[in-house]
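Team,

Forwarding the record for the chain on the shared tracking sheet. I've put the sequence and predicted structure together so nobody has to dig through attachments.
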Amino acid sequence: MATSRATDAIHKEASMKAIIDRFEDNNLAVLELDDQPGNMLTVSINELPSNACQGDVLYYQDGTWILDEEETAQRYTDINELFNSLLAHDDAETE
């Protein structure tokens, strides 16, 4: 997947980066802001892209939340690699 100019522009111009932590029953989404771990922001799901999912990386730019599909995909890859390495480590210890 090639890096797009739009994605590069998002990174350069973004004022805020967040990851969707969870969705709540009352049409709210809880975002973890990238500036500090544990710094949370609650927003209406109507403010998010319609295809946004838990764990997605978002950037807030010009009053709009923008989904960064490439960074989200990389984040999922990194998490899966870490999880698999932990499983392999655990398997090695139990043998």
